[in-house]
Design a protein that fits this description.
The complex is a heterodimer of chains A (329) and B (241). With 329 residues, chain A is an all-alpha fold. Chain A has helices at residues 6-23, 31-39, 45-79, 92-110, 119-139, 145-169, 174-185, 193-210, 214-220, 224-229, 234-256, 262-274, 278-302, 309-328. The two termini of chain A are 21 Å apart. Chain B contains nine helices and ten strands. Classes of the chains: A mainly alpha (329), B alpha/beta (241).
Chain lengths: 329, 241
């Protein structure tokens, strides 16, 4: 499809899903009520509270998480020159989950309140960076893409095993278990303004740093050596990409848990529609990822029978992925 | 005295290349031959600064470590042996990547496309091309850089007769215009058309000079373990017009 339509379409989608996120839910609001609540002029006290205190922060976190995960997916795919690479490849999200789950599972025994709002995200971010750091150290020797990939696979398995162990360890404690499940399946429920401040500024900054790298990513995605020979400082670019992608995924995981498939499906969809040029693919993926996540969150709200966000993204993402594989043959 | 375009002294890549020293001047068309695993590709990558290696590499008298990465993209172009494109960039965009180090100014892109007979494929995704066509895309991208030093790793191995001859003619023209063109080859007969032949064997430079001086029957027997004789045979040429 012509790329000049891309931005209008993607912006329109984002505005639409954003407004819908503010309007739909247990209490159904009309768009005029939503706009009234946003502008502060409307007289509807309840609508204002619902929109401003609950749905607006939730939607903003959703936008940031969706944009972060898709952008991070684009980065990983260019980095590994593989359109099937995902943001969690280097252990970021499983490390982040393990960090949070460890606090949830072991916190009570060690005597600190796991309920503290900042503690969990902090533990998650620490876990995420520790995991990526470990992968980088394990891969070493110039950090060739293949070694990195294999180290990531190994570490992901290890971290997953740790998380599963903690999960079984807390099997008797229903409440802790439920909280752990939240991290493993992701979600935007009860995201507050604190989560907005935790996630949105950092993700925005990382996205802004990422956008100018699209040009060099184009070259990198067609081969490290040829990129180097054409004037790309590949070493530096790779470090920038790993750092930014880790920040994006770590923050997204810290505020919303593990949300799978977004980083895979959204870039794929946009690449198929508008071509692989990263100068465009990056901003498109940020916009598209935000809409996709809001749409999935809307589904979890519409069917409140325990459909978690990570489940919905995978429910939509899984079949799409299979279709894509068939198409790629 | 004018410094050589490419200078290497005791260039070593552990396990792959041992103490190779050479000087290649501007205007030289150079063939690199040798059996599989002799270090031909490694030599090109080392000269291009794409591999960590020991020894000295200089471009026009300047040590490689003093040439900024971006600057390198303007002075030397390298074409990989394998032209793999995982993402469906249109051919024109891949070739335009040759202008990265020039701020994507697109100058010479159309000409490079025409030169490699890719005009009709310009909008086609590079992933849909045949092996030979992809290789021509890689060459066109290198050509678009406008770099005076061109290192091409087996540029003609996958090309049909006509395109191979066109690539050789292009290489000759770049050299005549003052460039330094280094090409790895498997076809020893083609090497006779070059100004200079470098023979690699087991990572060592065992021959360096004019083709008739270097590619002798004893050396070919020694390095390639085949018997070579001069015979008359059909030689394809591009039509003169």
């Amino acid at each position: 499809m012509r790329s000049r339509f891309a931005v209008p379409i993607l912006v329109a989608l984002l505005v639409l899903t954003f407004l819908a996120s503010l309007a739909f839910g247990e209490l159904r609001l009309s768009f005029s009520q939503v706009l009234g609540a946003l502008s502060g002029s409307g007289g509807d006290e309840i609508a204002r509270t619902v929109v401003r205190d609950f749905r607006l922060p939730r939607a903003l976190v959703g936008v940031a998480v969706g944009a972060a995960l898709s952008a991070s997916g684009v980065v990983m795919q260019a980095f590994f020159r593989n359109p099937l690479a995902s943001p969690g490849l280097l252990g970021v999200s499983s490390g982040g989950a393990l960090g949070a789950v460890a606090v949830l599972a072991l916190g009570p025994a060690l005597g600190f309140a796991a309920a503290s709002l900042w503690l969990l995200p902090l533990a998650s971010i620490l876990g995420a960076f520790a995991a990526t750091g470990a992968v980088l150290i394990l891969a070493q020797r110039g950090a060739g893409a293949e070694r990195l990939l294999l180290s990531g696979v190994a570490l992901n398995a290890l971290l997953g095993a740790g998380t599963s162990f903690l999960l079984t360890l807390t099997a008797g404690h229903f409440e802790v278990n439920a909280q752990i499940l939240f991290w493993l399946m992701g979600g935007l429920e009860s995201r507050s303004w604190e989560h907005v401040w935790m996630g949105v500024p950092l993700i925005t900054v990382a996205c802004l740093f990422l956008l100018p790298l699209g040009r060099a990513m184009n070259l990198l995605s067609l081969g490290e050596q040829s990129a180097q020979s054409l004037g790309v400082d590949v070493r530096r670019l790779r470090w920038q990409l790993i750092l930014l992608s880790t920040i994006l995924t770590a923050i997204a995981t810290a505020v919303a848990g593990i949300v799978g498939f977004v980083g895979l499906v959204v870039p794929q969809m946009l690449r198929l529609t508008f071509g692989p040029d990263h100068r465009r693919l990056l901003p498109y993926s940020m916009l598209g990822g935000a809409s996709f996540l809001l749409a999935c969150d809307l589904v979890t709200r519409t069917f409140p029978i325990g459909l978690r966000l990570g489940v919905v993204t995978s429910l939509i993402g899984g079949p799409f992925f299979l279709w894509l594989l068939r198409r790629a043959r | 005295m004018k410094s050589p375009a490419l200078h290497a002294h005791a260039l070593t890549v552990p396990g792959r290349l041992t103490e190779v020293s050479l000087e290649l001047g501007p205007g030289e068309l150079v063939a690199v031959v040798g059996p599989n695993g002799a270090g031909k590709s490694t030599l090109l990558q080392a000269l291009a600064g794409l591999l960590p290696c020991e020894g000295v590499v200089q471009w026009s008298g300047q040590p490689l470590s003093q040439v900024a990465v971006m600057e390198r993209g303007r002075r030397l172009a390298w074409v990989a042996q394998e032209a793999l494109f995982e993402f469906a960039f249109p051919v024109r965009e891949v070739v335009a990547q040759g202008r990265f180090a020039w701020g994507d100014d697109l100058s010479g892109v159309a000409q490079a496309l025409a030169e490699l007979d890719l005009g009709h494929l310009a909008e086609r995704p590079a992933t849909q091309l045949s092996g030979g066509e992809r290789h021509r895309v890689g060459l066109a991208r290198a050509l678009a850089t406008g770099a005076p030093i061109q290192l091409w790793d087996e540029p003609v191995a996958q090309l049909d007769v006509r395109h191979a001859l066109e690539v050789m003619r292009l290489a000759r023209r770049l050299a005549t215009a003052g460039g330094t063109v280094v090409v790895t080859l498997h076809d020893l007969r083609a090497a006779y058309r070059f100004d200079r032949v470098l023979v690699l064997d087991g990572g060592r430079l065992v021959g360096n000079g004019g083709p008739h001086d270097v590619l002798t029957a004893p050396l070919i027997r020694e390095v390639f373990r085949v018997e070579a004789t001069f015979v008359e045979s059909l030689v394809p040429e591009l039509p003169v017009n």
